[in-house]
Amino acid sequence: MRGEPSCPKCGGRVRAPGLFADAWQCSVHGQVHPMQPVVPPSVEALGVVVHRTQVPVWMPWPLPVGWLFTGAASAGDDRSGGRASAVACSGPGPLGGMGELLLVAEELGVGLGARYAGIEGPDPGHHLNVDSAPDAKVHAAGRPTPLWHVRNAPEDRAVFAGEARGLWLWAILWPEQSGLLMYDELVLTDLRDAGGEVDLVPCGALTPRLLTAPEAPPRQGKSER
Ligand SMILES: [Zn+2]
Question: Do the interacting molecules here have an ipTM over 0.95?
Answer without folding.
Answer: yes
